[in-house]
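If it is no trouble, might I ask you for a protein's amino acid sequence along with its backbone structure tokens?
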Amino acid sequence: MFIEQLKDQIPDFAKDVRINLASMVADETFSPQSKYGLLLATAIATRNPAVTAAMESAAAEVLSPAALTAAKSAASVMAMNNVYYRFAHLASNPEYKRMPARLRMNVIANPGVDKADFELWSLAVSAINGCGACMDAHEKALQEAGVGSVAIQAAVRFAAIVQSVAVAIEAAGHGVAQAVK
């Protein structure tokens, strides 16, 4: 399933979502690797099988096997980190912030792709998962890598659009049933 087929699943009540998806696909802010890794990582973060299948199909035509793996790794490791660091950040007891996480996350240091791409994907996934501490950390790493505010904001905009596609499809009743076809 490709992105065009995914757009066809977006119901008329979510016309703005469909238009935003088309605009995002045409957006040239990012290199193809950055863009399609971003689409795949954020799709996985939505936990919507139809959206993930469409983005993975599109990404597989553009990304190297290493980049596909890295995008999946970003979504996976951020799923873990976002839960842990959101808890540590939001818990009233400050002791949790001082405790070692004791979570294996070596992929962040050695993602197999350009570090800035991995940080961009991690930031976008963290935005979907709502972890302010992780968003701050990845935004800082991106700025230190020379990525500007416009690109950082665009990555989060992409995450918002991909999330809205998942919600629109689920609201229309197309979620798992369509992904299985």
Q: What stands out?
A: The longest helix spans residues 65-90. The mean pLDDT is 93.
